[in-house]
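Final report, closing paragraph on structural work. Over the funding period we assembled a curated collection of sequence-structure pairs, and we close with a single example.
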Amino acid sequence: MLLIYNLGIQFFGFVLRVLAPFKDKANKLHHGRKETMKAIDSLSLKEKTIWIHCASLGEFEQGRPIMEAIRQKDASQKIVLTFFSPSGYDVQKDYEYADYVFYLPADKPMLVKRFISAINPRKVVFVKYEFWYHYLKILSNLNIEIYSVSSIFRPEHIFFKWYGGFNRNMLTFFTKLYVQDQQSENLLQSINIGNVEVAGDTRFDRVYEISKNAKSYQLVKEFTSDCKVIIGGSSWPAGEKLLINYIHKNPNVKLLLAPHEIHEDHIAQIESQLNVPSIRYTKAEGVDLSEIQVLIVDTMGMLSSMYQYGTIAYIGGGFGSGIHNTIEASTFGLPVLFGPKYKKYQEACDLIELKGAFCINNQSEFDKNVNTLLNDSVVLNSAQDASKDYVTKMRGATQAILSKLLE
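Its predicted structure, as stored:
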């Protein structure tokens, strides 16, 4: 099985080189890895570091509370942050709480040894779904403590299949796996992995802090003043159609729309579907927003604080590969709606059970749920309380993990 794994790593590298001239993401990853190796060849850290690895931007949001807590506890501790995906690296390459930010070199023994030697980690954190055989084995052989945080396991994962022995073996290299829920611990114990602790998901700590220190946006405040407001967070076309159809039929409701993709073609496509007054956020300065029904957020990095201005939220992705972050809205006490592709997300399942979230499959269900929430104060208040209380209850994972990392 190791031979197949190694061949897979080699093949991926080959495909990356072939696609690099034609695909921007492949090009960034290919050249980013090369730049990382150049950088570490001139790097020889004598101080021990803590290395945090995140696949992409979503995992970064789970690793972020840990890095910020480390800094608060020990400002002198050096932190190395790595990404697999360009979408994570591009956005966070200048992250202020990391001393060094790199692409993760390919999982080949020679490269792995060079990288580990250069960054000199005393402890390593892999966030959620990161399992790289040679990294884990070499770190373990060097007696460097390895932690998995905010990980979650399901019966369909390869670790629990009869043919998953190679993958199960990787789990034995971890000093401890801090998992999100009891099911994950039970599954791991069923395959004799005992180095497990249920700590929860560090994202809850992150979004709670955002809600307590939310940025204020005067334009959004003016737009939403004394109105019922739906916030469309990280929306995709399927969800945008539902939102736009509803807004067309309900002139007394405003829509704050933050699309997942904000390139010009997509923003223009949204505008072409609207037959009510709308404006882009970047063009709204000095405009009388009282007559505007749709404000399109065509900038990045604002959504997590913008939820404070909403009444309810629709979270995108549920008609595609899976929903985006629901708890960013929940922490402000917003009931959330999303499409049917949510069952891999424990927080979404929990919120539905608590009646702080609602799954919708079509326009009729969307309209019915939104109308009920906006017009029945008892239902709205109950959903708001359930949503906010859930986030508050789920906090604490960061401190549970931090105590071990800073031993």
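The longest strand covers residues 228-235. The mean pLDDT is 94. We thank the funder for supporting this effort.
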